[in-house]
């Protein structure tokens, strides 16, 4: 048996794995000892890796759909078909009639290739990925306040924090090794404060839990700041030295009273004062936040409100502090860094700046597109309107994971051509005209970038099943077929080196450097050859940071007589996003029943519903059938569902009302009605039809 060092393929913590390989198969994993983030541990998902990538569950040959049914095809035929369909779509609708959705689960090398393919081969900026519906408000919000949207500090900083503030993140479930580290910090005396409308496990263990009304984040953060300014608890020296003038913010907050904040958020005044005092007086406060901040139509403003609080108290730029968006997927930080966003090239070089366009035109030996690109949700809208005709989806399952499932399915049905690169036949792949089998992380070399900007090596441990190929190689072969020779790399390292040479944030990185220890944190360049564990120590990318006056924005849909419950969505520890990988593990499947609607016992009692009652849940966009689970994790009036289960597709209900700045849809709040099913009726389960393309008839 060999043990090959790698990095976990699930969440953005980026734990170090050893892949146990026997007779050409990954038979299990072990934690890497001495890894700076995972410290010799893994969570249940990491331990289940071998099921998630098992060759028995995988696509092995290209598939082409004919008369509504897939048949096996050669790579030659499949690639030729994709090349000619993309060219036909562009001839009919122009360069921007096509788009690429890249993969936050694939490597930096794959993502670099995806955006280069979009820009250099297709000549469009229509390239995006699921960061759009994850931390895009962090990218836009922190760009405005600091100039950089990444986690400012490192995971190890938690060990030095005196206070840990967690806002809208369920850390023990979703970033398990960070959650464990926070609890260890609390055990040695750090204070733990959680702001969440649900009683999460971490909230139950915290010193203080502010169980705010769902969606009242700006009201709460403004209220805390108002108390801080009123009492003179702000860090005046830091504000004077490091920030722009804050007079407009002070004036804006002067109109607010703690009583108003309490009424708007449901938090007693005394609790507000206590948290404001503790946070502002702490010698080192580490602030972490997640989807409870970003997934709102006010997502960008929510992020800026977090940033205001951190800056006003000077809790940034030192070890143990910082504003720390907990990035979600194993390589979502990397997919953003590599420029799989319509408005930036690798390293956040702006796509609308002529100098940047010229730089890449010269490096890639072809003109660059000049029109602004569409976001992923923008591509869905364009497809519905007939403006987008062909779409390439590399490892993403928007039919399950994007809001308003019926609309997504209608949009994809309206395309002339859809191609999916996947490990398995997901709900989205079922809708495609061509499906290409992609190599999984254990079958390729490359790098993943974790949530703390740490670029880490993954290594090929086994051969890909059947004829499956690596994403960047597929893109290179397609490029050649479409007349572009500049993507014919011979190794992942060659892709990385090209990227590093063009990206100032990565210019001092190489595979040799990454191999030496446990990777390097960007920026890693001539100024910081050893990388950067803490950002913003001396100055901000903007020079001085900015604090913005902000006003509470309510969710687009509130409860009313027709739809009386607030509906929200979140995650379970044992499953991961669309579930296409974790649900292959019988061990993980055993842990969590699929498709439950979580509801407070008082609500259930009021309506005479019992635990496991079968119900129909309806929003303005769709409906589904599930069973209730009674839990006091949720306050009365709010119901919640995890989103991993295709047989209980909560994104049939969710609202695509969007943040105007980041285009983030409001996945955390909409309104629903609940009706009990007749006694004895079993909830309809679309999984019964699992292998049938659900929307093939649309
Ligand atoms: N086990 C597991 N781990 C994962 C994932 C997974 O699917 N499963 N997915 C990965 C990905 S892609 C991501 S992005 C991360 C996401 O990790 P998190 O950010 O933790 O994601 P969620 O559980 O969706 O939401 C976090 C919390 O926001 C709270 N919340 C809802 N509304 C509000 C509000 O108005 N204010 C506040 N303050 N809180 C609110 C919810 O109650 C929930 O506890 O997890 C990653 N890790
Ligand atoms: N209601 C609701 N919806 C949500 C959210 C929510 O909180 N509530 N959260 C949103 C968030 S934060 C996110 S990030 C999205 C995630 O949404 P998705 O990105 O759609 O989900 P994932 O399960 O992370 O991964 C998608 C696919 O990547 C494939 N894959 C893995 N590795 C590779 C590879 O190397 N190459 C290729 N080609 N494919 C690969 C897997 O097989 C999997 O099917 O969901 C969003 N949707
Ligand atoms: S915490 Fe995240 S990275 Fe670590 S083992 Fe679990 S899923 Fe993998
Ligand atoms: Mo995410």
From TrEMBL:
SMART domains: Molybdop_Fe4S4. It comes from the Bacteria. PROSITE patterns: 4FE4S_MOW_BIS_MGD, MOLYBDOPTERIN_PROK_2. GO terms for biological process: formate metabolic process; respiratory electron transport chain. One of its GO terms (cellular component) is membrane. The lineage of its organism: Bacteria, Pseudomonadati, Pseudomonadota, Gammaproteobacteria, Pseudomonadales. This is Formate dehydrogenase major subunit. InterPro entries: Asp_de-COase-like_dom_sf, Formate_Dh-H_N, Formate_DH_asu, MoPterin_dinucl-bd_dom, Mopterin_OxRdtase, Mopterin_OxRdtase_4Fe-4S_dom, Mopterin_OxRdtase_prok_CS, Prok_molybdopt-oxidoreductase. SUPFAM superfamilies: ADC-like, Formate dehydrogenase/DMSO reductase, domains 1-3. GO terms for molecular function: 4 iron, 4 sulfur cluster binding; formate dehydrogenase (NAD+) activity; metal ion binding; molybdopterin cofactor binding; NADH dehydrogenase activity. Keywords: 4Fe-4S, Iron, Iron-sulfur, Metal-binding, Oxidoreductase. The keyword Iron applies. Residues 1-57 form the 4Fe-4S Mo/W bis-MGD-type domain. Pfam families: Molybdop_Fe4S4, Molybdopterin, Molydop_binding.
């Amino acid at each position: 048996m060999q043990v090959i060092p790698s990095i976990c393929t699930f969440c953005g913590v980026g734990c170090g794995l050893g892949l146990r390989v026997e007779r050409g198969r990954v038979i299990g994993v072990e934690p890497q000892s001495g890894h700076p983030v995972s410290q010799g541990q893994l969570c249940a998902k990491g331990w289940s890796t071998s099921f998630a990538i098992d060759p028995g569950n995988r696509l092995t040959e290209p598939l082409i759909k004919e008369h509504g049914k897939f048949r096996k095809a050669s790579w030659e035929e499949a690639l030729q078909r994709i090349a000619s369909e993309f060219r036909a779509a562009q001839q009919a609708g122009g360069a921007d009639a096509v788009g690429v959705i890249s993969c936050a689960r694939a490597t930096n090398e794959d993502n670099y290739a995806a955006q280069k393919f979009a820009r250099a081969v297709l000549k469009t900026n229509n390239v995006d990925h699921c960061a759009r519906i994850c931390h895009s408000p962090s990218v836009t919000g922190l760009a405005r306040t600091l100039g950089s949207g990444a986690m400012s500090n490192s995971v190890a900083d938690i060990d030095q924090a005196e206070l840990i503030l967690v806002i809208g993140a369920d850390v023990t479930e979703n970033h398990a090794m960070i959650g464990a580290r926070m609890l260890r910090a609390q055990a040695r005396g750090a204070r733990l404060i959680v702001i969440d409308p649900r009683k999460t496990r971490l909230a139950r263990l915290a010193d203080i839990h502010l169980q705010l009304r769902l969606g009242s984040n700006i009201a709460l953060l403004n209220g805390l700041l108002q108390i801080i300014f009123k009492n003179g608890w702000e860090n005046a020296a830091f504000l004077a030295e490091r920030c722009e003038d804050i007079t407009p913010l002070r004036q804006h907050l002067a109109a607010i009273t703690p009583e108003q904040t309490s009424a708007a958020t449901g938090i007693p005044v005394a609790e507000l004062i206590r948290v404001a005092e503790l946070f502002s007086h702490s010698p080192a406060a580490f602030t972490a936040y997640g989807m409870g901040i970003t997934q709102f139509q006010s997502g960008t403003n929510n992020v800026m409100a977090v940033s205001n609080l951190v800056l006003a108290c000077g809790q940034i730029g030192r070890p143990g502090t910082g504003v720390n968006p907990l990035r979600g997927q194993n390589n979502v930080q990397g997919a953003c860094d590599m420029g799989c966003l319509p408005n930036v090239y690798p390293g956040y070089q702006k796509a609308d700046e002529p100098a940047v366009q010229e730089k890449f035109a010269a490096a890639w030996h072809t003109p660059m597109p000049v029109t602004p690109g569409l976001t992923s949700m923008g591509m869905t809208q364009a497809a519905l309107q007939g403006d987008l005709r062909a779409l390439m989806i590399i490892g993403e399952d928007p039919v399950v994971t994007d809001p308003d499932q019926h609309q997504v399915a209608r949009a994809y049905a309206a395309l002339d051509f859809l191609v999916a690169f996947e490990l398995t036949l997901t709900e989205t792949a079922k809708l495609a005209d061509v499906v290409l089998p992609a190599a999984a992380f254990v079958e390729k070399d490359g790098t993943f970038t974790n949530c703390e900007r740490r670029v880490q090596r993954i290594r090929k441990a086994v051969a890909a099943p059947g004829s499956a190929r690596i994403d960047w190689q597929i893109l290179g072969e397609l490029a050649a077929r479409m007349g572009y020779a500049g993507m014919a790399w011979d190794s992942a390292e060659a892709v990385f080196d090209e990227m590093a040479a063009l990206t100032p944030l990565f210019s001092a990185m190489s595979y040799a450097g990454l191999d030496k220890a446990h990777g390097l944190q960007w920026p890693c360049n001539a100024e910081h050859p050893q990388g950067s564990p803490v950002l913003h120590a001396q100055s901000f990318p903007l020079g001085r940071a900015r604090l913005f006056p902000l006003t509470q924005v309510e969710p687009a849909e509130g409860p009313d007589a027709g739809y009386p419950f607030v509906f929200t969505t979140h995650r379970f520890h044992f499953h991961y996003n669309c579930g296409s990988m974790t649900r292959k593990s019988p061990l993980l499947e055993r842990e969590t029943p699929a498709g439950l609607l979580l509801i407070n016992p008082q609500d259930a009692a009021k309506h005479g519903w019992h635990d496991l009652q079968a119900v129909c849940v309806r929003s303005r966009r769709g409906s589904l059938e599930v069973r209730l689970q009674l839990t006091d994790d949720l306050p009365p009036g709010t119901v919640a569902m995890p989103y991993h289960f295709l047989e209980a597709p909560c994104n049939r209900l969710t609202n695509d009302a969007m943040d105007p700045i980041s285009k983030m849809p409001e996945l955390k709040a909409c309104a629903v009605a609940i009706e009990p099913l007749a006694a004895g009726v079993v909830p309809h389960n679309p999984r019964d039809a699992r292998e049938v393309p659900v929307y093939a008839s649309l």
